[in-house]
Amino acid sequence: MILVTGGAGFIGANFVLDWLAVGDEAVVNLDKLTYAGNLENLRPLRGDARHVFVQGDIGDRATVDALLQQYRPRAVVNFAAESHVDRSIQGPGEFIETNVVGTFKLLESVRAHWSRLPADEQAAFRFLHVSTDEVYGSLGPADPAFSETTPFAPNSPYSASKAASDHLVRAYHHTYGLPVLTTNCSNNYGPLQFPEKLVPLVIHNALAGKPLPIYGDGSNVRDWLYVSDHCSAIRRVLEAGRLGETYNIGGCNEKTNLEVVETLCAILDELHPGSPITPHASLMTFVKDRPGHDQRYAIDATKIERELGWTPAETFESGIRKTVAWYLNNQEWVAHVTSGEYRNWVSENYAAR
Ligand code: NAD
Ligand code: DAU
């Protein structure tokens, strides 16, 4: 049995679905169900005894203590976080609350539980913390990609809160001996991503004939990874990662935002010629830049490849096609998650641009 936190969000839900598709070890899934968490993501697991869902906060000691005691998981995989950079700019408080204080409280619960385990269970136990490449800051065009030894230089409230959580996880290993692993991954895309992030937002707007907002001049670079490749990397690190180590995860797919949006538009032209406005690229609109917008992220993933033999299965070309096809086939899912709170967020965030 493993305990997954944040398993109703984009990557967490993909992870739980993949985990139970490739094996039989049960999952307890603790998620607060914020705007980003959605039980529909876990619909294929309805009635599956291997999945136990619990609504709750990683910062709620009583809930987490009780879950650890009841289920005695052999590992905790921590996805729970506030994850959207633009939201962290408009309101950093929740990011500090969940990403910093929540991770701290989770670590405290896990440390108390782990310290009471018999020696064999203690030795086998793992706490895997899922983090981001944004902790390393921003690269210039000629800089080498982020490695695990690149100094932290977070630039947004989101990345600063994730960097703080990474430091806490590291400290719990060095101070208390907690058996931790940390992964720092680049931009994910794929099924079930909430349409506040670039890829699903562009698909969603394009299908509705709405402008496709490109911050600044669209030259910012991200290193894109298909979500199931992130999930397979986490499984591999959990299985064989060296305790106390961090592993960078990325797909070697550096693209400018313009390239990403143009690619999405071209695939939509091909797969969905019936949109209200085509070609979809005619909807591309340059808007005010994100404050403190990081210019470039790139991941050097040689450590995880060399030590653990992990490489991604998808190329950007194959993954992005699958993603567009998934959104076209799951417009009901998009309609459900884009009601209410989502519409308020979009009108606030994009009105200012
Ligand atoms: P997401 O916003 O889609 O999902 C986050 C999930 O965490 C939601 O289900 C939400 O309800 C839950 N949650 C939030 N606060 C919680 C709390 N206090 N207690 C319990 N659950 C809580 O995020 P995502 O994109 O799936 O990201 C998951 C993790 O991966 C995050 O830690 C993020 O920093 C990291 N990450 C994301 C990316 C990416 O490109 N999306 C890349 C690298 C790393
Ligand atoms: O690098 C990993 C990170 O990737 C994760 O840690 C974060 O949780 C995840 O949200 C993502 O952060 P980004 O800020 O890179 O992702 P986002 O999809 O918000 O934006 C991608 C790029 O596209 C970025 O340069 C900003 C730009 N953008 C974004 C939106 C939402 C636009 O030009 N227009 C938009 O409307």
Automatic annotation (TrEMBL):
Cofactor: NAD(+)
EC number: 4.2.1.46
Lyase in keyword set: yes
GO annotation, biological process: nucleotide-sugar metabolic process
UniProt-listed InterPro entries: dTDP_Gluc_deHydtase, NAD(P)-bd_dom, NAD(P)-bd_dom_sf
Entry keywords, A to Z: Capsid protein, Lyase, NAD, Virion
Chain ranges of the NAD(P)-binding domain: 3-323
Broad enzyme group: lyase
Pfam family for this entry, one: GDP_Man_Dehyd
Gene3D superfamilies xrefs: NAD(P)-binding Rossmann-like Domain, UDP-galactose 4-epimerase, domain 1
Annotated catalysed reactions: dTDP-alpha-D-glucose = dTDP-4-dehydro-6-deoxy-alpha-D-glucose + H2O
GO molecular function: dTDP-glucose 4,6-dehydratase activity
Record family assignment: Belongs to the NAD(P)-dependent epimerase/dehydratase family. dTDP-glucose dehydratase subfamily.
Name the UniProt record assigns to this protein: dTDP-glucose 4,6-dehydratase
Organism of provenance: Thiobacillus denitrificans
